TrEMBL record:
This is HAT C-terminal dimerisation domain-containing protein. It comes from the Eukaryota. InterPro entries: RNaseH-like_sf. SUPFAM superfamilies: Ribonuclease H-like (SSF53098). It comes from Artemisia annua.
Length: 295
């Protein structure tokens, strides 16, 4: 009866909540927002008002929620501050090469999340927000579990991040060779990938020439395309004199660098958030719809 009634007001299907993790809830809320007007019309209809007596309390509860603008404001807030997270996961949950983009994507995502939360709380960005602090710790915990030194090496070898235009977009940005964390992880990679002392010295010299834009990398053609050409294409064109700086990472040298695990225990309120993990399950979710037999 409920499904039949709902279908009279919209052609969009309701998505079932999959028994998975974070993103299924986001997908469900996105769909709620799309069908908001249809839901409002449904719960204000004569048919809804004449709902069978044994579920009148449930029908009244649904009606109150659907017509509650504060509830919809909370839905919008959730979607706003999780949008950067969701978009970032979607961006690199593909088959395309993006290892060289992940580090910067995380930095940008965290900043966008902060802006959304502080805008909702109407606070200057330099003030303290308890909620943002909790969300930030969740994101940093996930980054610590999923990142590897290779992310920093790939970031260091992306010419775009040495380009003046990119650096000037945010005064807090520095080139990869000037970032302490990135440099520390890059050094780990070089030591592991080039255990031979002579090769190690050569790669350090090649990286210095590249990062300082000296020698072949000082050419105007190389410099002008650092921010416009895809990284692999740029290296194919201008990296011939740095033969050790390639993207051919050997499996035996890089495997088992990842750490992970998604287990967490349910807790109340902030405690639960502090232990939550993020994942994307929309492809599976989109194949599950409410059917005529769904209760």
């Amino acid at each position: 009866m409920r499904l039949s009634m709902y279908n009279k007001f919209t052609q969009l299907k309701l998505l079932s909540v999959a028994d998975t993790r974070f993103a299924s809830i986001i997908v469900m809320l996105k769909r709620f927002k799309l069908v908001k007007r249809a839901l409002e019309s449904m719960v204000m209809s004569d048919e809804w008002a004449s709902y069978r007596e044994d579920v009148q309390d449930k029908a009244r509860f649904v009606r109150d929620k659907v017509l509650n603008e504060y509830w919809w404001d909370q839905v919008n807030y959730i979607l706003n501050f999780t949008a950067p997270i969701y978009d970032m996961i979607r961006a690199y949950d593909t088959d395309r090469s993006c290892l060289h983009l992940v580090y910067e994507m995380w930095d940008s995502m965290v900043e966008k999340v902060k802006i959304a939360i502080y805008k909702q709380e109407q606070k200057p960005l330099d003030n303290f927000s308890l909620f943002y602090d909790v969300v930030y710790e969740i994101l940093m915990a996930r980054w610590a579990k999923s990142s590897t030194p290779l992310h920093c090496l790939a970031h260091s070898l992306n010419p775009r991040y040495y380009r003046g235009e990119w650096l000037n977009e945010d005064l807090a940005r520095v080139a990869p060779h000037q970032d302490a964390e990135i440099s520390q992880e890059r050094i780990k990679c070089f030591k592991r990938l080039y255990p031979n002392v002579d090769d190690h010295d050569k790669i350090l010299n090649e990286f210095a020439i590249f990062s300082l834009k000296r020698g072949p990398f000082s050419d105007i053609g190389s410099l002008s395309r650092m921010g416009t050409m895809e990284a692999k294409t740029w290296w194919a064109n201008f990296g011939a004199q740095s033969p050790l700086s390639t993207d051919e990472y050997l499996d035996e040298k890089t495997k088992m660098w990842d750490v992970g695990g998604d287990e967490f225990s349910a807790m109340e309120d902030t405690g639960f958030l502090e232990l939550a993990e993020l994942s994307l399950d929309e492809p599976e979710l989109e194949t599950v719809f409410f059917s005529e037999n769904t209760n």
